[in-house]
Write a structure and sequence with these properties.
The complex is a heterodimer. By secondary structure, chain A is of the alpha/beta class. Chain A has helices at about 40-50, 90-100, 110-115, 130-145, 160-175, and strands spanning about 1-10, 15-25, 30-35, 55-60, 75, 150, 180-185, 195. In chain A, the strands form two sheets. In chain A, strands 5-6-7-3-8 form a five-stranded parallel sheet, with helices on both faces. The longest helix of chain B is centred in the middle third of the chain and has 30 residues, at about 90-120. In chain B, helix 2 (about 20-40) runs parallel beside helix 6 (about 90-120). The two termini of chain B are about 30 Å apart.
Chain lengths: ~200, ~220
Amino acid sequence: MRLIATGLACVRSGREVFAGLDFVVSAGEALVVLGRNGAGKSSLLRMVAGLVRVAAGRLALEGGEAELTLAEQAHYVGHQDAVKPALTVQENLEFWARYLGGGARALPDVSLAALALDRLAGLPAAYLSAGQKRRLSLARLVAVQRPIWLLDEPTSALDAAAQDRLTNLMRGHLGSGGIILAATHAPIGLEGVKELRLNGSAA
Amino acid sequence: MTGMAALLVRDIRLAVRLGGGAPMGVLFFLIVVTLMPFALGPDLALLRRIGPAILWLGALLASLLALDRLFAADYEDGSLDLILTSRAPLELTVAIKALAHWLTTGLPLVVAAPVLALFLDLDPRAMGAVALTLLVGTPALTFIGTIGAALAVTLRRGGLILAVLVLPLTIPVLIFGVAAANSAIVGPAPFGPPFTILCALTLMSLVLGPFAAAAALRHGME
């Protein structure tokens, strides 16, 4: 499986954010998107998730499931956690697991345990801290299997132990042939990742 | 289909736990209907004659109350991003969300209507006619309203724009809803034709609403 971008350009409200972007990410590889604030890191991830229009160029997934679009094979973890305060931790995760659907998936309590949230399962999400909400959002990655992970600042608000858990999850995902695109300022703790610098020149 | 069932359960659960939609809608309905006799004077014959129209107007305005949160709440916490990357067709998702919204805010209005009809001195036959036309007509109001809710999702103060956008579109539903209720009560026209047109309007909105709202959401998110 390979995610291929050729000559990718992004235009937000009339302003060109980036253009002529080329990269290839193969199965088992992670691409870290770097760049100053406003360089278009989030826009690039949202573009792969189908939430921002591709202004020019092409974005394709080779060797994925033919009947599904690229966005339908990707997990998008953005700045917002998509957590409903009125539902419990377990209900939040169960909803997304069932709604996103498709593919093999782990049981919600297994996914919660993977991010050390199992003891909070019955708690309304309104009482979660920012880091716990972020972990609940990341539990989706375990609960529903999708080959491409799009992580926008995944480590924000996470403590050291949770960052280690996330690193282990990412390592496991890459080991099973997944693809990760992460936009981050902080190191994500993976070895041998590709880097893409967004300020005109791709490295 | 399990995903759609999960969505229906989630939206109903949220509506029940947050408690905003149904009680507020019914209370607003109650207040509109209670204010009318104060404005019109204690003329029971007049109230009885225009009762169905008052109930319909009250239900129409009350059904718009919570509609602006239909997609805005999901937009604000990022859920809408995930909904757009789901494998389920967006049109179906919109239809299920609208159904959950109607069950939690539209249906309570239908149930409350016969009680409020007592305030307007309507007889049991008239109560039944109004409740039946509301039962058939309020889904149309909700599904037409989803279009406005989808258009207003990225706007602040979307509630006001929603009312301005949606109310003109509900005029046909209002006309045939009140006409059917009146013809059942006072005649002389038969109940059938306006009621079947009302049914047709509802069926049309059940189909057109989700498609238009999904198109508006896709366009609005870019």
